[in-house]
Amino acid sequence: MCHGDHQDPLTGYTHPSLGYERYLDQLAQIYLAVAHRLLPSGHLVIEIANLKKDDIVTTLAWDLAGRLRTRLQFLGETIVAWDRYGYGYDHSYCLLFRAPVGSS
User: According to the model, what pLDDT value does residue 72 have?
Assistant: First the structure.
């Protein structure tokens, strides 16, 4: 979802957007639910990109990482180069997380 999008991608673009911040909250809830199911030694990898549309940059990958690192340990990123990606860039990120030690 780019800043200013009017449709919610989490509904298959069938409902109005509740805004970018709400979208980030919803994505974070989804990934935290997945992380909750991991074994203690498990890792969570999220493939995601920042977006550029009409010269407006939405830092989706960085914004989501910021939300998740309040609850998960951020271990780093791997940049994946594509011949064509389609969201204004030629790459995406694989963000690597794990649950903090001692969490359940």
Answer: 94
Q: Tokens for 95, please give them.
A: 């963000």
Angle at Cα 61 formed by Cα 67 and Cα 1, nearest 5°? 95
Question: Scanning the structure block, which residue is given the tokens 């010269």?
Answer: 55
SS (H, E, C) 25-39: HHHHHHHHHHHHCCC
Span 3-49, pLDDT tens digits: 666 666 776 677 777 788 898 999 999 999 999 898 888 999 999 99
Q: What angle do CA 72, 37, 8 make, to 5 degrees?
A: 75
Q: How far apart are CA 47 and CA 95, in angstroms?
A: 6
Handedness of CA 16, 30, 60, 66 (dihedral sign): positive
